[in-house]
Structure formats: C-alpha cells, structure tokens
Amino acid sequence: MITIIKNEFISTKKIILIIFNILITASIALTYIASTKLVGTNIFTESDIVNMFFKSTLSMLAPFIVILISKVITDEFANGGMKIYLINPISRNEVLIGKSIFIFINVLITMAIQLLLSLLAVSVLLQIPSLDFVVDITLKYLVTLIPVIGLILTFIIPGFLMNASRNTISAGFLLIAVLDIVASFYEKLNPYSIMYVMKTIAVSNQNLINNSLISLIYIVIGFIISSYVFSNKEIS
User: Fold this and answer.
1) Which of 32, 93, 102, 176 is the most exposed, having the fewest neighbouring CB atoms within 10 Å of its CB?
2) Could you tell me if 85 and 4 are in contact, meaning their C-beta atoms sit under 8 angstroms apart?
C-alpha cells in the first residue's frame, strides 16, 4: 500500500495541486477586493480573514477531489497502470485504500497551505495571531477532514464506473450540482448531505458527533460500493 502511495506521488503531476491552490488564493483575493472596494468594508478581524480562506478552500475541495480521482483511477484503467498494480500480489481493496490515502494527502496538503496562508495574511494585515487562535483554526481545519474522507469515497465510485477521465469529471461535477440543487429545494435533507456536513462541521460544534457519524456512514457505504464495483470491473 505504501508503494502505491509513493508511485502516485512520483507519477501524478503536481500541477493539479498547484493550480487549485492558485485558484483558491485568487478567489480569496477577489473576495477581499470586492469587500473593500465594492461593498465598502474596510475593517476585517482575524476571524474574517481566516474564514475567507476556509470557505474558499471548502468550495474548491469537491472539484479538486473529482479531478484527482479521474487522474489516479479512471486514467489508469485506460493507460494500463491499474493492470500493473494488480500483477503484483496485492488485493484490489489495498489499491483502493492506497489511492484514497493519496487523494486524502493531497487534500491535506491543500488545506495546510491555505491554513498557513490565512495565518500569514492575518499577520501582514493585522497582527501576529495568538497561539490560542492558531490552535482553534487548526482544529477547525482538522475536524473538516472527517467528512472529506467520506467525500473522497463517495466520488471515487464514478471513477471506477467510467471509462474515460472526462466522463468521471462530468459525472462528478454533475453529482456536485445535484447535491447542491437537492439541498436548496429540500432543506431538511441538508444535514444528511456529505458536502453540507463538510461545510458546517467546523462551524456547528454542537453537531460535531452527529456530523461525524454521518461522515462515517458515507465512508463505510462509499468504501463498500466502490470496493464492489472495483472487484467486478474487468481490466484489460
């Protein structure tokens, strides 16, 4: 499994990670400019600045995960990379877990970069943040990683079903849109949406246990379905 993760870091282009971090930072800059110039808000607190980074990061994570899945899973069915993995004495579940961990590490790197940038922005624009503030913000990011695992294992399913990366991306983006549309029309379903949980788990601390349990359900179901699909997929 460790070998799979190492191979992914060697073979997967880092440009995807770089582009998404640039996009997140650019969206934050635009939000800041719009707030100061158009809306007229000139006073920002530490929390305001950090929340801009946090919300922008969360809004980008789902598309980022979908594109990564298309590259490390669907593409490898097409180029024969998956067949090479399975020639070795390794189970398909180990491949699934190894690739999921690789995607998770990329998300973790992205969130760490944005966390550091947010703290740097606070230091430049306001003052050096206190240790308590840094700890609170770090925990906010760490808690969000719980539903991120569920999101990865949910979006990984179309990665095994599709035969081309563009189809995986299209299906993933469609799923994101459907989840948002359903949530907008049926607010009672919001608490059960993994994307809603991801965006609120760090804010609604009183629902931390419920949100964690919902995330766990997505993790288990996502793994079972993706494992079943992968185990029954023919690899040529």
Assistant:
1) 93
2) yes
